[in-house]
Design goal:
The protein is an alpha/beta fold and 332 residues long. It has one domain: Rossmann fold. Helix content is 48%, strand content 11%. Strands 3-2-1-4-5-6-7 form a 7-stranded parallel sheet, with helices on both faces. The relative contact order is 0.16.
């Protein structure tokens, strides 16, 4: 029995027209398999100095992938550690300096990765991101520009840099690291949810537009994990508090007092969950990967939202000229 996936769905205009109303694609949850080899697969990951990025770089490299672990502000000790690890374990792991807020660095870094790889990148993991916590009124334009530049424009720059090569190869995978807060909202978390909502929308748009090019887009939505993101968030939030104007901050005394004092160290969830989810997505057959993948050691409040939006998109556009693209992504 032939298994229908995104590729067969778009095999030709006539076939597409026939299948659009009946095809039901499999968008199974990825399964992490430690024995699988990723040899021959190139993966570029942003934000590899710590947390999800660092863990994913090590995991995939140890399973044979050619990994381009990128981070900003080189030289730095974290880069030296990864380089030493690659040498000690004979890993195909290369550290490249990329600040996702700097377009010249993005373009130069991707170009260098493609030179080393001898061709287009197979997988892009947009992991780099920051958080700044405050009431929205307290969030000044400096903080607002920085968080959008990193969490939204950064993945956009990275995607634009790798996509011409992926389109030429007619294959590829873009994995966006979003958050539960890209679908639900916690008060006093500044513009973090706004940026992640934007990333989710941009990623779903990309997923539709890239079906015809054989390129998948998957969004991982982690819950709270004890990574260094808390340290960085505190630094940004404390700086914002120190420069905040009383005309704004006076309205939220309790929340402002807590800015820069968050502590995620009490969380017991294993950040390796996210690295394994990324590995599972890469291992899945093209065209069968889910658009959204919640990953959490606790509650997953966004699941019904994801289900409803998929139903709404399909119900709204399923019988329109966009129907094959929408159904290909949502598996309906």
């Amino acid at each position: 029995m032939t298994r229908i996936n995104r590729r067969t769905l778009l095999a030709g205009a006539a076939a597409t027209a026939t299948l659009a109303g009946t095809a039901r694609l499999s968008a199974a949850e990825p399964v992490y398999t430690p024995e699988i080899s990723f040899k021959g697969t190139s993966v570029l990951i942003t934000g590899c100095s710590s947390g999800f990025g660092r863990l994913t770089a090590e995991l995939l490299a140890r399973q044979g992938a050619r990994v381009f672990a990128t981070m900003r502000a080189l030289p730095r000790p974290e880069a030296d550690e990864l380089t030493a690890l690659a040498k000690a374990e004979n890993l195909d792991l290369h550290v490249i300096g990329i600040d996702v807020t700097e377009l010249p660095q993005v373009n130069a870094g991707v170009k260098e990765a493609m030179r080393i790889n001898g061709g287009p990148i197979d997988v892009l993991v947009n992991n780099a991101g920051i958080g700044i916590t405050s009431p929205v009124e307290v969030q000044d334009m400096t903080a607002t520009r920085l968080i959008f530049d990193t969490n939204v424009f950064g993945p956009h720059r990275m995607a634009r840099a790798v996509l011409p090569g992926m389109r030429e190869a007619k294959r590829g995978l873009i994995i966006q690291i979003s958050s539960q807060l890209g679908r639900v909202i916690v008060p006093h978390s500044g513009h973090y949810s706004a940026t992640k909502f934007a990333l989710e929308a941009m990623s779903e748009q990309l997923a539709y537009e890239l079906v015809a090019h054989g390129i998948d887009v998957s969004i991982i939505e982690p819950g709270g994990y004890p990574t260094k993101v808390w340290v960085n968030r505190n630094a940004y939030s404390k700086a914002l508090k120190e420069r905040s104007l009383s005309v704004h901050s006076a309205g939220y005394p309790e929340q402002v007092a807590r800015m820069g004092t968050e502590d995620g160290s009490g969380r017991s969830n294993d950040p390796m969950d996210v690295a394994k989810a990324i590995a599972g997505l890469i291992a899945q057959p093209p065209g069968t990967r889910p658009l959204r993948l919640p990953v959490s050691g606790g509650a997953i409040p966004q699941t019904p939202i994801n289900q409803v939006t998929a139903q709404v998109q399909t119900g709204w556009l399923g019988n329109s000229p966009y129907g094959p693209l929408v159904k290909a992504v949502h598996g309906r």
